[in-house]
Amino acid sequence: MTLHDYLYYILLPILSFSIVLLFIRFLMGPSIADRVITLDLLITTGIGVIAIYSITSNQPTFLDIAMILALIAFLGTVAFSYYLEKRNKNE
């Protein structure tokens, strides 16, 4: 089994199934914090898919896109936690 077979037949189905489960959790999340964490996990899983596509297509440019997406997701999560902290102080 080569690396490409392993990526196509094992890792991509696992990531696809996890995206479906995370999207269901995003829709059913009881609180806003649960939805933000789920959105962060969705973006992280998407970064994994982008990395696999970059490896299989032999285009390392997509890894730069994955890094930028990771930075945006991290900053969004930090900004939201800061917002929740300020909101709890005001209440």
TrEMBL record:
Membrane topology classification: Multi-pass membrane protein
Primary location: membrane
Cellular location(s): Cell membrane
Keyword Transport in annotation: yes
Name listed for the protein in its UniProt record: Cation:proton antiporter
A Pfam family that the UniProt record links to this protein: MrpF_PhaF
GO CC annotation, single: plasma membrane
Protein family: Belongs to the CPA3 antiporters (TC 2.A.63) subunit F family.
Keywords: Antiport, Cell membrane, Ion transport, Membrane, Transmembrane, Transmembrane helix, Transport
An example molecular function term from Gene Ontology annotations: sodium:proton antiporter activity
Gene from which this protein is expressed: mrpF
Transmembrane segments: 6-24, 36-56, 62-84
Record NCBIfam families: PRK12599.1-2
